[in-house]
Amino acid sequence: MSPSKQAFLDLIHQEVVPALGCTEPIAVALTAARAAEALGAVPERLCVEVSANLLKNGMGVMVPGTGEMGLNIAAAAGALGGKSALGLECLRDLTPAQVDAAGAMLKAGRVELKLPGNDLLLYCTVTAAAAGHTAKAELRDSHANITRVWRDGELIFEKEDAAGAENRSAAGEDWPLTLAGIYEFAATAPLQDIAFILEAARMNRQVAEEGLTRQYGLAVGKSMDAQVRRRILADDMPTFAVKLTAAAADALMAGVMMPVMSNSGSGNQGITCTMPVVACAIRQEKSDEELARALIMSHLASIHIKHHLGRLSAHCGAMVAGTAAACGIAMLLGGGLKEMEMTVRNMVGNIAGMICDGAKPSCSMKLTSGVSTAVISAMMAMDGHCVTPVEGIIEEDVDKCIRNLTAIGRDGMNETDRVVLGIMTHKC
Length: 428
What we know:
By secondary structure, this protein is an alpha+beta fold. It is 55% helix and 11% strand. The chain has 18 helices and ten strands. Strands 5-2-6-7-8-9 form a six-stranded mixed sheet. β8 (146-151) and β9 form a beta hairpin. α7 packs antiparallel against α13 (288-309), α9 packs across α12 (267-283) and α13 runs antiparallel to α14 (317-332). The N and C termini lie far apart (54 Å).
């Protein structure tokens, strides 16, 4: 049974939200902010425990407003200047004085970072101490999900059903979405109910345009723009889609103080669900309604795939979000459910298995791989061509095809994840 219209809308509003900065360090900052608020005083010391996957995704990315990278500075900035009520935008009001104090806390060795005694994929606790008192906040399963808070050892807050929701969802229990159901909703929902998704286009395009103005990270988008101006690259729709997506990721990974519209707890995935679809709509001169429906298709498809994969995994989310964006592009090109199913098979048959080795400037390069493949996959589908079910992990049933993909990322690549993390944490 397909979910109700309201269930679709609730899911989008839950999973498609503004985020300031890469969401792994922001999750730590948010947890630290909540611990400091419970402490009721300026923390003197912090003890931060993060899961291995969260550590992997927070080692190499800039923290907005600080000019530094890593989870230590994220925790310190969150504790000294964060506001937990702002969720994934918790560092929005960070001041220079608070940044200086956070830097001083790090230099004094008053932030301890370690791994917890569990094997959860997305987990963080921050214990803040000052004047003989302590407070501790716990986050788990999703990037803004504060589950418990203690003060001086006494539990003062516990979220209902605090443990296990994400683990159950990754296993696929009671999940009602299908690609067909998503398409039906995207194609038929009243425009006034879904027009809010155009804010994702506005917000993420603004960050993309900023990424084209100056050197952010590897400046992949800016470099592509320069090659277009030199007429080395064509100024066509595929190049435009890749350029805008990369430019937004360049700025995000460099800690730009501008929010992006995230998807399933990831800013880069929100960018990838959005910007290729926006680029196609611009170049194809589509209406706001057509863009809104394609964006709904893209964002819901990404949520659908990520549900089975899990929030963090060894599988790069650029491929997941690229597959979702490809569905949105196919919709803008006039395709229906059949063409979207073919598009998904093309994506899974091509770049399944791209590893995640943490959030970092080169994520923008991975996004270019996902987006360029998305455009090709959609165009092939529109011409009636797709990878057949006799090949590899492809299935005739597109939702089973998606589950094959996510089973590899969620279960089959566990050893890959351990090896990648070992390499990253033992560099000289």
